Each structure stands twice: as structure tokens, then as C-alpha cells.
Amino acid sequence: MYYLSIDFGTSTVKMEVLDDNLTVLASQKQEYPYILLPGEKVEIDPDVLFEATEQAAQRLPADLRSQVGALCYDTFSPSPVFIAEDGTLAYPNIITHMDRRSRAITDYIDEVVGKERYLSIAGIYPFAGGAGIMTILWMQQNEPEVLENTYRIGHLPTYVHHRLTGEWMVDLVNASMLGLYETTSQGGWSAELLDAFGLKHEWFGDIRNPGEFLGTLLPEVAERFGIPAGIPVAVGTNDMASAQMGARNDRAGRIMNTAGSSDMVSILIDKPVTNPGYYLRNSALPGVWQIYATTAGGFGIDWFYEQFCRELDRATFNNEYLPSCVERFVADGEVTFDPYLTGDRQSLEKRTGAWHGLTLAATRDEMLAAMLKSMNRVLYDVVKLASDVVDLDSVIKLTGGLSGPAFIKLKEQEFPGFTFEVVDNCSVLGNVELVRHHNGRLAA
């Protein structure tokens, strides 16, 4: 059987046709913009996202598309969506994890249930950008008409799946990422939290396992993608959870580092231990959790290039300038950096990026090296916390655009005792692995 596997990233959709041996037969991608609005709002137009998806699909070879027998996908998240009964969005856009409109909700959650009680149920502190509950409660307080017109609430997989099949669901991973789920026990939606905040239980659908087939592809979507109508569609999930499966990480102690637009680390554990310093989330496999943290990654590098290096073309910057900075500033100097260009989803306070130790002797080369080192140290701090919970593998699987030799050298310097193994296409492969796992056919 051929699979069409789709990865909905923060700024790009990628898709591949794969066979039963997980051989990639064809691949395409298409970028789409996100929308920056006043009030720290960061959103994506759903029609623009699906138009980009259709464009990428239509560039795949027609003969392969005609043989696709199943569709599977993953998405970025948190990505709150408020969906009307007819499947359109009650709030017009997808709200991304970079959105920070809901900062004040942290104090509200603390007032209603207390941060520690909330942590003991949901597995996290209530961070802006870290859980869908923040945006849900912001809507309740600021745009209640959105909730009046809402039939279902979820993250992007809920919307994508309904648009593909007409079926309603929330996948296991995004259930915990919504922040209204009993993550520490994997016990389902928390009646305590829903009732405490006056949220309707019926807004949140049945929780399904990633990779489970639920519904079939609607004819109108099939026509636009150029693939057969009526093929089964697997329940999608969060991109990092899928990437773990694509890297063959399916047991406690395995570590995944996805280094792209954001630089993320996920450590699988088999007992739910909470800590304010990381997110505790479900993994794609029932009975397994993940410890998770993220930092700016490629977003920070893109910002540095635009502000300081525009005289260089991007190829020279990426392939020559950046590696040379990493190699020449291995040891720490006076210049350091606070790695919060995109904020900090592990903090209750608003954090921003900043260099320290700048003098007339400082150079942009040293400033870039300090920025890159500091971002990796954020992730290593979480790995150290995880080492108190589970015995860790010494090999970290690495994927994404920031996985070249210079980045590996930097990471192995900043993660003492660990080595990095580069793996490709993890999320796209992981989607298929989840289908095979759910059907008892996980590849050997």
C-alpha cells in the first residue's frame, strides 16, 4: 500500500508518498505565511494552509497519487481552533504556539485552582503558548461570542481531521497539550478543570490514539489533492510525538531533538513526574509520556541574519559564516545571551532575548555564537532534569534543518556525555509508523 503522509509545520507543509517498506517515492513542500497582529497575536489563515497543501499535493506524480491507499498526518501544536458545527472556524484563524495574547490567564488559573493543583492534573504550569486552555479562557473573557458559536474545540489535528473526513476527534497527545486533560494519570478530560472554568464538556471530543483509522477521505478533498476518495485517514498528532516514532524511539529513556524553526527536545518516560521546568505530555503511545522543552532555533537564526548579515547571501551565511562562528568561539567569552527571542514557554514571566557583556571588542561573530550556545543550554537543562526521572540513552536522535556538522559539533559540546545521530524525515515517517503500529505492523 502507498501512504500519503503530511507534515503541517509552522510555516511549511511537507508531504511524501511512501510504500510499505517506508521508502520515500516522492516528496513536495509548500510554504505559507503566518499573520502577526497587535497584542502579540500570531495566527494562520486556514484557507491559506489548505491551499498550500493542495498545491504541494498536485505537484506529486499523478501516477503515485492515484495509488495512495491511506492518508496520515501530523501538525504543529499548540494550535487552538474553535470550530462551528458546520466545520468552519468560529474564530477565523488557527492560533499558533507563538501567540502570547493570553499571558494574563496564568494568574486567573492560579486564582481559580492554584498552579500546583493545576500542575498535578495537567502536568504543566499554565504557560502562554504552552497549552490550549490559555487561549480558550482568553476567548471566554475577551471574545465570548466566539464560544457562543463554537461546537468543538481542539488543536489543529481536530480541524484537519474534520476537514478531511467529517469526523470529530482529539488525539491523545493534543488532549494533554490542551491543558484540560488528566495527563498525570492519562485518565481523560478533567471534569474538575472543565467545571472550574465553566467550559462545556461537549466542546471536547472523543480522544483517539494517533495512527488509528477514523473515517475516510471526503470526495471534494480527494479531488483537490488528486488522490482516491474513500481511502482511510489515520488520526493525526503533534509533530514531535510523530517524530519520536519516525526515529524508532518507542520506549522510556529515548531522546529526540528536532532542530528546525524551533529547537525542541522530547524525552520519553514511563512514569508521569511533573516539574515546573518542563512540559509533561502524553506521547503517541498510551502508557508512555514525554518530557518536552523548546527554544527559538531557526527563528532566532533568521532574525540574526535579517538584522546583522544581509550583505551575505543566505547560502554563504548558512554554509560558511555560521559554521565558522561556531568553530571560532567554542570557549565562552564575555558575551552571553538570554535565549528568549520567541519568549519562554517554560516561564510564567514574560522573557525577552538580550546580550550581556557587550564592549567595543565584541563582534557579531561572537554574538551569534553566544546566541546558539545559549539556546542549546536551555534544552540541556531539561535533559538534566529528565535524568532524575529515567535512565537516558546516550544517543540523541537529531532531525531538522539545524543538523549539519557545525550544529552537531556545537550540540555535542553543550550536551556533555551525549552523542547525536542524524535521522531524516522523522515526522513524515512517524505518521506511517503510527499507522503500522496501531495495526500491529510496526516495521522491524
Automatic annotation (TrEMBL):
<feature type="domain" description="Carbohydrate kinase FGGY N-terminal">
    <location>
        <begin position="2"/>
        <end position="246"/>
    </location>
</feature>
<dbReference type="InterPro" id="IPR000577">
    <property type="entry name" value="Carb_kinase_FGGY"/>
</dbReference>
<dbReference type="InterPro" id="IPR043129">
    <property type="entry name" value="ATPase_NBD"/>
</dbReference>
<dbReference type="Pfam" id="PF00370">
    <property type="entry name" value="FGGY_N"/>
</dbReference>
<keyword id="KW-0808">Transferase</keyword>
<dbReference type="InterPro" id="IPR018484">
    <property type="entry name" value="FGGY_N"/>
</dbReference>
<keyword id="KW-0418">Kinase</keyword>
<dbReference type="GO" id="GO:0016301">
    <property type="term" value="F:kinase activity"/>
</dbReference>
<protein>
    <submittedName>
        <fullName>Sugar (Pentulose or hexulose) kinase</fullName>
    </submittedName>
</protein>
<comment type="similarity">
    <text>Belongs to the FGGY kinase family.</text>
</comment>
<dbReference type="InterPro" id="IPR050406">
    <property type="entry name" value="FGGY_Carb_Kinase"/>
</dbReference>
